Amino acid sequence: MPENNPAPSPEPGSLAAGSSGQEDQNQRYWFHILAQNTPAARNLHATKLVDKAWQQGDRVCVVCDTMQHAEELDDLLWNFSPDAFIPHSVVPDSATTCTDPVGILLCPPVAEDWDTVIILSATLPADADRFKRLALVAHNDPNVLNQARSHFKQLRALGIEPRVHDLRKRG
Fold first, then answer.
1. Taking the model in full, what pTM does it have?
2. Which of 2, 38, 55, 65 is the most exposed place for a label (fewest CB within 10 A)?
C-alpha cells in the first residue's frame, strides 16, 4: 500500500524510514527496544513519538491496558513540554469518540481513525496490518520483551517484517 507522508520520528529514522512517495509496507511498522528497564522510560519514549507525529499533523493514539497506565500517560502528555500543549484525551472504550488529535486508548484502535498507532498494550490489534503507521515500544524488561517478541511474530504472520530499533546496542 503506498504511503505518501514522511512518518514521524523523535530522532532520524527511528519511527519511519524514507520519504520517497512509495514506502515499502514494512517501513510503516517499527519496534523500539529501549536500553532502560523501566515503565517510565517506555512512557517517555512513547510520548516523544506522540509529540513528533502530532507535530507532523498525524492523528495519534497510544494503546494501553489499564486506566492507571492511561492516567500516567495523560499526566506525562500534560507536562511533556513547557512550551506546548499536546491536545489529547483518554478513550476508555470503543463507544467513546476521540475528537482530539491524540488519544490514549483502553480499547482497540480503528485503523481509519488514526494515522500513527503506538502500542504499549499486551495485545496487538487483530487488524494491525491495516494501520498507516504502527510503533511498538518495549523497555528492557524480560516480560515486556517476551510480549514484544509475540507481537513481532504476529506481525510476521500478517506478512509484515517490522524494522527494529534496538537502543540497547547504542553506547
1. 0.82
2. 2
